[in-house]
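Proteins fold reproducibly. Look at a concrete instance:
___
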Amino acid sequence: MSDLTKTIQKWHASFKKGTDFDSWGQLVEAIDEYQILARQLQKEAQSSNSSEFTEDQKKTLGKLATCLEMRSAALQCTQSQEDFRLEDLKKLEPIVQNVLTYNKGFPFDVQPVPLRKILAPGEEENLEVEAEEDSVVGAGSPESFSSRVPGTLLPRLPSEPGMTLITIKIEKIGLKDAGQCIDPYITVSVKDLNGIDLNPVQDTPVATRKEDTYIHFGMDVEIQKHLEKLSKGAAIFFEFKHYKPKKRFTSTKCFAFMEMDEIKPGPIVIELYKKPTDFKRKKLQLLTKKPLYLHLHQTLHKD
């Protein structure tokens, strides 16, 4: 069996694993599987080295990656109106299996994912450690960020009698190399003790400005569940992400989290931890010994 055939078999097994998780309601596992496979397909689709795939086959791989991303996004956002459904994704299984011989039109009107992409969960740690000189890219860029990313922040939920809604204003984050971070934003999620999502995941727009060792956001995030409905042991996570032009992907730099007993009105300063993000909170390592933190302000709304 050729290496290429083995690779395609691996992709098919991963696709099947993801759709199985999806059909069983194991959404976190399905999302991870979809994103890892999407990244692998995309890497092959964008490979400029001598590839065993034709240009048409690469386009097909890129479109498959797009569909996996769309299904992954649909699972993460319960309020999406135009979901890419599981039954839609399952129509692509024969293409994954027979990508070398498939010669019909692609069943969905999609385009390959852009070159610049977020890494799949857990994949980032397997890459080489970035060279020190990589980190100074953008050091001379202006104080304000020119490129604006729209973000995926959601509006506040309707109020319910006797129930509390939480608004968290992300004020700023302290980092020793704040001035060198390109297109920084924060992903906010609410997880239970097992790391399972309790809310739709939200991304802030790109930060508004940077100053000395701070990146300023000044953005309100509306938590998509009433405080009283959050399970015991839940936590709100904040993952700081930035773009690495040399590697052409968006990377998680560090993360912070806030547990239920820390939810109270007013300002709060929380510690930053090294990646990878540990949603189960079992192996935490501080990012730095310096007094650099994530600065938040909480507002509780109760009828």
Notes: Residues 120-149 have pLDDT under 50 and may be disordered. Residues 3-24 form the longest helix (22 residues). Helices lie at 3-24, 27-45, 55-76, 86-90, 93-97. The chain is about 25% helix and 25% strand.
